[in-house]
Structures are given as structure tokens and as C-alpha cells.
Amino acid sequence: MNSSPNDHCFAYVKFSGLFDPAKLSDKIGLPATKFWAAGDTHPITKQTRKFSMWKLESRLPHSAEVEEHVGDVLAQLAGRLPQVKMLAEEFNGVMQLVCRFKEWTAGIHFDSKLLAAIAASGLEIDIDEYFTREDREAIPIEPPIPAQ
């Protein structure tokens, strides 16, 4: 993907379900970037959380290409993919990609090495793309059909 300086992307791996986040960190051999446990109070809504969440985020700046973010997360998990695969099956493991575009430049390319690592991890992929250009209504989502 060729990002413009206005684009904002990041990636992370997350697990969710009923588990102790500290024990999940022990199983993977890495600390979570962010986590919460079922029963914790949400800091904003004050509601009791119904499930646990463990997240490992990319270390790159949000200006980096989304493919680079995925590569960074996978590099952090290097040597741990069998554990990740086991946990992904049990706790809804997802590689989450988020991109906010101000230009119409959406395009993501994963090379075969990256795809093989994702496949070995057993993680699902969830891609969220947001187009935030202020005049987005002037940009057709599909090319206009010529009048006949």
C-alpha cells in the first residue's frame, strides 16, 4: 500500500474470551500491550467487562504502511507461532488491521512470506478501513455508469 502522509494505520493481535491475561502472557512468552480481565470495570462506561482481552500492538508509528505493521506484530511473535495458533483456536485470535485514509489510496498487499506467517499463526484477519476525506461525497465509490 502506498500511504499518503495523512493516512493513519496500525495493526495488533488480540485474543478475547474467559481467561486470565497474565496466564495468556505466560503461555505466549510476551507481555500484552493492553489487556483487561472479565469482571474489570470499563474506565469510561463503568460497566463490568464480560470477557477478557489481550492485545499485542505494532511498535511502529501510525504513519507506517499497514503491511509493515503486520510484519512488526509477526516479528514480535516469531518463534511463538505454535503457542499463538493453539491460543487463537481457543480464544478468538485475530490479526486486526485498521486504516484511516484521507486520500483514495486504499490498497493492501501481503507477500507470500507474510501470508505464510499469518497462516501458521492460526489467526483470523479483520480489516477495518475508514475514509475520512471531508469531501468524500464528491468521490464516487463506483465509477459512474455512462448515460445511454
Q: What do you see in this structure?
A:
The chain has 148 residues and is of the alpha+beta class. The protein has one domain. It is 26% helix and 24% strand. The chain has helices at residues 21-28, 66-76, 81-90, 112-121, and strands at 8-17, 34-36, 52-57, 94-101, 124-131. It has a five-stranded mixed β-sheet with strand order 2-3-1-4-5. Helix 4 (112-121) links the parallel strand 4 (94-101) and strand 5 (124-131). The longest helix is centred in the middle third of the chain and has 11 residues, at 66-76. The protein is globular, with a radius of gyration of 18 Å. The model has no long low-confidence stretch (mean pLDDT 86).
In short:
26% of the residues lie in helices and 24% in strands. The chain has 148 residues and is of the alpha+beta class.
Which key phrases capture this entry?
148 residues; alpha+beta; 5-stranded mixed beta sheet; globular
Average pLDDT taken over every residue: 86
Q: Structural class from helices and strands? A: alpha+beta
Percentage of β-strand residues: 15-25%
The domain tally reads 1
What does the radius of gyration come to? 18 Å
Number of strands: 5
The major sheet is characterized as:
5 strands, mixed
In whole angstroms, the N-to-C terminal distance is: 36 Å
Helix content: 25-40%
Topology, pairings included?
Elements: E1 8-17, H1 21-28, E2 34-36, E3 52-57, H2 66-76, H3 81-90, E4 94-101, H4 112-121, E5 124-131
Parallel strand pairs: 4-5
Antiparallel strand pairs: 1-3, 1-4, 2-3
